[in-house]
Amino acid sequence: MAELEGTDLRNVIADDYQKAAARTGAPIPREDAERLAAADLALVDRLEADPGPASPPETLTPGPSLAEASDPTEAEEMARAFGGKLVVRDVPNESAPTPVVETLSRESLEKRQKLLRRVKELMRTNCTKQHRHVRSCWEYKDFAPLVMRIHADWNTCRGVFAQAKNQRERDSRFFVLMERVCDSSNGHPGLPAWYFK
Question: Rg (Cα) of the chain, in Å, rounded?
């Protein structure tokens, strides 16, 4: 392939800029594309005219390290020699964060078990595996999409779960939203109340 020069090369580069901008959904005018191409070609010309230093840069020999100092006074002298000041900090050991274990009361555990049973019931289907449309398989079409949406948002940290500070807060928001769905399903025909206090 023959090498392009001058205006031919600038036109090819400008075409490429316009195609790339059109693929992103933000097309640019031809004049802007040509201006960008001209700037790129000018940069290449400057670099070809002055390639930089011919010899490799000198390697610097490292000086003494403060970490290698045997006692604090020697380290302070080395810091002063470089015009600095020695600051000693205690670095906390953060090798393993301590897990937060949530302890629930017996009543809370029973409530969560009943909630999970109700969610499982809301997600019940009456279709075979060959059925294509999952949405039409749900017995409780009003509640199953809500449960799916809450679970997807919780699993991917989207929506109200994105502002949660930690996993514990995400989980508590998850159960609050699931409780609301279960509470709204109480009056539905065929579903008894899911929780009694």
Answer: 33
